[in-house]
Amino acid sequence: MSTEPGEQALEQVIAARVREYRLAAALSVAELARRTEMSKAMLSKIENAQTSCSLSTLGRLAAGLGVPVTALFRGVDDEREAVFVPAGHGARIVRRGSRVGHLYELLGTLREGSRRMEPLLVTLTEASEVFPLFQHEGTEFLYVLDGVLEYGHGEARYVLHPGDALMFDGQGPHGPVRLLKLPIRFLSVTAYGSHDVA
Fold first, then answer.
1. Is 102 exposed, middle or buried (0-12, 13-18, 19+ CB in 10 A)?
2. Residue 177: what are its φ and ψ, rounded to 5°?
3. Which PANTHER family match (predicted)?
4. What are the residue ranges spanned by the domains of the chain?
5. How do residues 78-133 score in pLDDT, each as one tens digit?
6. Under 8 Å CB-to-CB from 190, ≥6 apart: which residues?
7. In whole angstroms, what is the distance from residue 87 CA to residue 107 CA?
8. For residue range 164-194, what is the model confidence (pLDDT) as tens digits?
9. Which option is the CATH number for 91-191: 1.20.1250.20, 2.60.120.10, 3.90.79.10, 3.40.50.620?
10. Residue 138, CB half-sphere, CA atoms under 13 Å: how many?
11. 115 CB-contact burial (10 Å; exposed 0-12 / middle 13-18 / buried 19+)
């Protein structure tokens, strides 16, 4: 009987995790066999990816190792998406502030069904104006790179210099109030909850 490529990879991941957790717990194969009520030969086959495991076998292994069953699958889906944006190549997006000279560059987005985080590089220049404070879902984090500005959140006002950070609830009215030293550049990262809509 031939093994599908995905099945072989799963067996190898489980083998690696069982060996890793057994060694971390300083257990011999014989001791783990006793704890799981399995033969040493069967454990050797599992650790060498020479057999597949049933759900009950996985449960016995996890109990014997003192880890959740899901820990035995760590590494199965290691390929994760990453986005690299070279300096000056962020996608320019139009926002409410765009019409008053604010430049927003999107620094990355993943192709997931729902957006969870939005990183932007915001640039304010001599031509920029301040505008009424705005609101949105999620939590926003600002980090100032260049310039000085007064930033409002609700009734509070913060004078932000390079290296300063500000994090706040996006539902509170917020935005630049005064541009004190131009040009101003800051990173804005908004984290959305699973049900938030940007």
1. buried
2. -105, -45
3. HTH-TYPE TRANSCRIPTIONAL REGULATOR, METHYLPHOSPHONATE SYNTHASE
4. 5-73, 91-191
5. 566 666 677 777 777 766 555 566 777 778 776 555 567 889 999 988 767 776 67
6. 117, 118, 120, 136, 138, 139, 140, 141, 170, 198
7. 9
8. 999 999 999 999 999 999 999 999 999 887 5
9. 2.60.120.10
10. 20
11. middle
* Whether domain 5-73 has CATH 3.30.750.24: no
pLDDT attached to residue 113: 53
Residue with token string 């030969």 = 41
pTM for this predicted structure: 0.55
Contact 172, 133 (CB under 8 A): no
Identify whether the C-beta of residue 36 lies closer than 8 Å to the C-beta of residue 60.
yes
Amino acid at 45: K
